[in-house]
Amino acid sequence: GKPSAPNAPWPQPQMLNASSDYVYIDPNFFIIYSNLKNCDIIDQALERYKPIFFPPKISLQSPSSFDDSRVLISVLIHIRSRTCAVYPELRDDQSYNITIEDSYGKIIAENVWGALNGLETFSQLLFITKDNYLATNASISIHDWPRFPYRGVLLDTARHFLPVPILKQHLDTMAYNKFNVFHWHITDDQSWPFVSKTFPQLSAKGAYSPDHVYTPADVQDIITHARLRGIRTIPEFDTPGHVAALGRAFPEFLTDCYNGTVPRQAIYGVHAAREILDPTNPEVYEFMKALLQEVKYTFKYEPYIHLGMDEVYPACWLSNPYIRKFLEENNMFNSTDLMTYYSSKILEINRSIGAKSMVWQDVWDDGVKLPPGTVIEIWKDTTLVPESQPWSYYLSKATSEGYDAVLASPFYLNMIEYGKYNTNDSVMNLEFFKWYNIDLFANFTGDQAARERLVGGEAALWAEFVDGTNTLSRLWPRASAVAERLWSSIDVTNPEDAQFRLDVHRCRMLRRGIPAAPILNGYCGAYEVGMKQSMVNEPVFSHLT
Amino acid sequence: GKPSAPNAPWPQPQMLNASSDYVYIDPNFFIIYSNLKNCDIIDQALERYKPIFFPPKISLQSPSSFDDSRVLISVLIHIRSRTCAVYPELRDDQSYNITIEDSYGKIIAENVWGALNGLETFSQLLFITKDNYLATNASISIHDWPRFPYRGVLLDTARHFLPVPILKQHLDTMAYNKFNVFHWHITDDQSWPFVSKTFPQLSAKGAYSPDHVYTPADVQDIITHARLRGIRTIPEFDTPGHVAALGRAFPEFLTDCYNGTVPRQAIYGVHAAREILDPTNPEVYEFMKALLQEVKYTFKYEPYIHLGMDEVYPACWLSNPYIRKFLEENNMFNSTDLMTYYSSKILEINRSIGAKSMVWQDVWDDGVKLPPGTVIEIWKDTTLVPESQPWSYYLSKATSEGYDAVLASPFYLNMIEYGKYNTNDSVMNLEFFKWYNIDLFANFTGDQAARERLVGGEAALWAEFVDGTNTLSRLWPRASAVAERLWSSIDVTNPEDAQFRLDVHRCRMLRRGIPAAPILNGYCGAYEVGMKQSMVNEPVFSHLT
To answer: What does the similarity note say (chains A, B) (predicted)?
Structure first.
């Protein structure tokens, strides 16, 4: 592999030309400004990038002794639409151009989201020389746009709670990697941290503790933190499975699973005692309508609610005599009929309240007809679920049937492996290679229209074994490999070069207070965690209040 | 598995009887004192345990309203030998007894090291009730001793540098788990952070940067921090392989590896260009003598120096025409003869300067006769090195030949795996089971004397992919599983119960400022990382100056 420049951007821009000459930046005489005034997205971004341009604890030198022509004086952010925006959408133009010539730079974008992408790339072009001068190359010309419009990360705040400051650092890091969708798997069997105004008993009884909750203010705080960084927040309220915690508040909504004639019995490996909604209970639908209305109101800018609908255990439903009776009385023949009954009602409720639906593939696997515009998230694969098909099969099928699809299967980053090295000139992190070499269109059989419905991918960190102690260091920079795969050209596939660029990017994240883990032997600088200049826990980056 | 009491100790004591009655502790009226005065080991331990007994950020209640008989007033640490000590030794008595009856407790030990073990267990017996009272059971009777005298953890500070505050937190955590040997793999191919007074060029040229070094003061700081916690520090200066960083200061000491007739050529998978000492250069031995003398002087209390002697690539030596000539002239026939030549000289140097030798098994595999008293560390196994034997074979053989042996093979904790769950009533962390179920005497064929020479085991965290960002959360509580295996009775083997005790112990570490990762679904308390009461980065626990 080829060692990287200290300011190589990540993910790799689509088109980049840079001369090897440098210009320097005077921390006291540098101006970055926009043609769009009084727009919170831009105004707050410019504030936010100050400590990123000029890292705390590093005393930058002034290049005053240099010739003026070698100093970058100003950067203009030019937003062609001249309009602010509130919340990013899937099909927004996310592209931008950067030019730096001599003393002047320009970031040009159609809208504020492209401008944010440009600003992030510009921040990465800056580097600190050994003598502590802030520098970049000049001239530079970049023309950049994402390969896929949907680039997500799933965090699971139910198996372990993630405090708001950690979620915010995570969102910051998503922006540093040009991810643009935060899929918030907020509830599950283990806990229900979401404080509902309509049903306060959900978190009162379903959260781990009164401290392990997201209040309405917390949720708005997260949504705002994300949208200011060009990130959508898609909440997932997974039903009818994965609801044991919901059942602590509403025990009557759960199905009693039987072992033979004995109710509320777990059969390990088949089903738990009580973990699935009872679709025969009409109150369940009233509850779900009220809950989803609150969710829609809470996540008001986001068109989609993720409804889960994965991993429903038919053996539980069918073990229950009341459910068997219901099937008989309603001319249903199996659990798939019952799942169709439940999910059709919920999908219709979601439609009726003005929300679009996103679902895990299971409900579609079951043959349920989904409303137009439903996004199907593909997570199955032969490696995860032996009896399933390869993910490429599902992607081709779903998009060919007219659904938008998002690929998660190969990006389950909770499935850690030791990344052994295999060459002598560098430690090659094979784990990183694994995701980096995924081509989402491998074995794709759909037509051009279907290709466009494959909207992107999502890295998932299921939280069986992570919480505030290790979420950031486990996810980053591993998720960065997925970020480049989803953003950059399909031609950017040389992991032996990429590992060095990713190593530079990892040091960059560390400089921004994110404890991103190492992927190669080596070191970053005197700002590593545990050293005096460490930026981790630096107030400006830590969001602790 | 059976859920654990909130004050279940880890590792499990050999004999423990506790009633289910509680006594309470008044934070303002509790005395713990020793019969041994003016002993730094004890005096500093008592200081150190104050914030452990009474955690910062938790306002404990005073049990003043209770009946006096339900308050624990004082604990006496009774050290039978009535003598202080400076540094722990392998065969020290490490046992202790604890009794708590009504208002009085006693920790009885033969020496200060047993007393430290008792103090640690006592600290674990305390728990905080939901109403914020500090409590423990009474009566309690514990009689405890370790199954193996050597319970080590290896950290590698060469592939990535670990700042002193991180090393100190690691040593604290070792003490919380009754580990008693810190194996400091201080140098390797990647860097040489050890500042030598004799050869300052070693770190000047071999360290990653002038900030990535351990000064003589740092080293003494670490040694003292460890010994005050009953932990030996065994430094490893690995030769003749793993010395590329040494070669940056002394290029003339390295063997040029050839590819055919071309010198300084790497053949990937066979050898690097230059990474092994040249044993034909007489200056190498003068250098090694001076270096080892300095090491012996620096680590002055510790009898052993670990000399490494692992993974020497014969193909490199034999590729070099000057080495082949040397073999011919000295009636040597192969690389093993040369390894014998080198290692015999080094082992003799080490003996001559008054140090005992510890080595990786490779040199012994090569048939080199080792001086009496040499400790052989077993790291090979069929799972790591396909052409090798199972580790039990090596343990039996080495101890039967009269050597002390330490087992590392199954405890390479850098080799992470995803610990999938497999039952419905709890997430079972299979990765943790893997180490927990290791019986060091499985398939052991030696006699009783040989059994006693199997002195213990060592968890190793090779540092390809860890540094200050993730060392503590990756190692803990995974290494705790090894700790219990090395300390507790062979009868303590039920991992389904142990996981709940370990979960309690993990929360305990978190309460002491160590970002130990979760191993089960669930939560600890309002002191998790990212929450306001988090103890991580609390000055008293973080050792940042």
So the answer is: Belongs to the glycosyl hydrolase 20 family.
